[in-house]
Amino acid sequence: MESDTLDRLDLQLLSALEVDGRASFSRIAAVLGVSDQTIARRYRRLCAQGGLRVVVMRDAQRLGQDQWMLRIRCAPDSALAIGEALARRPDTSWIGLASGGTEVLCLTRPRTAGDHDELLLGKLPRTPNVVEIRALQLLHRFYGGANGWIRKCAALGDDQIAALRPAGEPVSGPARIEPEDEPLLAVLERDGRAAYPELQRATGRSESAVKRRLAALRASGAVYVDVEFRSEVAGRPVVATLWITTVPAALHSVGEALAGHEETAWVSATAGPSNLAVTALFRSTAALYAYLSGPLGGLAGVQHVETTPFLRQVKKLTYPMPR
Predict the structure, then answer these.
(1) Cβ-contact 226, 21 below 8 angstroms
(2) Torsions phi, psi of 186, nearest 5?
(3) In this structure, are residues 270 and 264 in contact, taking their beta carbons and an 8 Å threshold?
(4) Which of 108, 282, 283, 310 can pair with 288 through a Cys bridge, CB separation 3.0 to 4.6 Å?
(5) Are the CB atoms for 224 and 141 separated by under 8 Å?
(6) Helix runs in 51-97, H state only
(7) Measuring CA to CA, how many Å separate 317 from each of 43, 92, 97, 150?
(8) Is the pLDDT confidence value at 27 over 60?
(9) CA-CA distance, 116 to 66, in Å (whole number)?
(10) Beta-strand (E) ranges in 148-286?
C-alpha cells in the first residue's frame, strides 16, 4: 500500500467485504477476476497495515433499540482515559477525542434501559474530571449501518455486487435476537469471518443449524456484517463530526442529501440542540473547508453547522483499535 493509499484491487476487496463480509476468498476472487491467493494476501496485508476488521454488528434501529450520541466535556488530561474506558464497553462505538482533547464523542447502543441509566446516571456523572455530558438521542438513520462508506468509491459494478450479495430474500416482520443467539453473536462480534466449526463449538449447535440461524438473523436485518479500517490508508486522514441545525421542514431533505455526499460515512437525525449529526472523512483540512463552504453550505434549509474534527480515534467498531 504505497504512501498508505489503497489501490483499485484493495478498494474492490473492501467493497466486496462490505457487500458480504463472510464471502469466501474464492468467491471474491472469482468476482474480481484474480486468484484466491491474491485475495488472501491482500486481506492479510490490509489487516496488518490498514487495521482491517470484519465484525458482525447488531442493528439497533432495526431492533427498535435506542441509540445515543454522547458529547462528554472533560479536562484535557483525562479525555484519553475516559475514552478508553468507554471503548472497553460492548455497547459503544465510534469514540473519538475532539475539541483539542477536551471532548469525548461516543456512540452508545444500550441493549436495555438499565444499561443506559447505569452509564448516563451512574458511571459518567461520578467520573472525575467530567465537566458536562450532552446526550443526543438518534431518531432516524439516513446513512450508515449496513451501508458503509467504502461503497461510495464505486469500485464494483452492479453485476459484481449482485454476484457477491448473500443468497436469500429479506425476511418480513420484526427483527429479533433471542437469548440463545448470544453465544453465536459473542464470537461474530469479535470476528465476523469466524468459521462455522468455531461457531458450532461456541453454540453447541450443529453446523447446519448455525448456518440457518445466522442466515435468518442477517435476512431479518437484526445483524449485519460490517468492515472497519483506518481511514488514513484510504487517503482520508481527517475525520470530523458535524452538528447541523436545519429548519424543521428541511430536516428530511437535508438528511437525504447528506447521505448521498461522497464525504459522509454516517448521517442521523438527532434530538437536541442540533437536529443532524454527521461523521465525514476528508483528504485534508482544506478539503473539510471546501466541503463546509461548498456542498454542505449550499444546501437549502441549513441554518447552523458546528464542526468538531477528531484529534484521535479511540474506537471504531471494535476495541482495541489495531495500531
Answers:
(1) yes
(2) -60, -35
(3) no
(4) 282
(5) no
(6) 60-63, 79-87
(7) 18, 8, 16, 15
(8) yes
(9) 9
(10) 223-228, 238-246, 264-270, 276-282
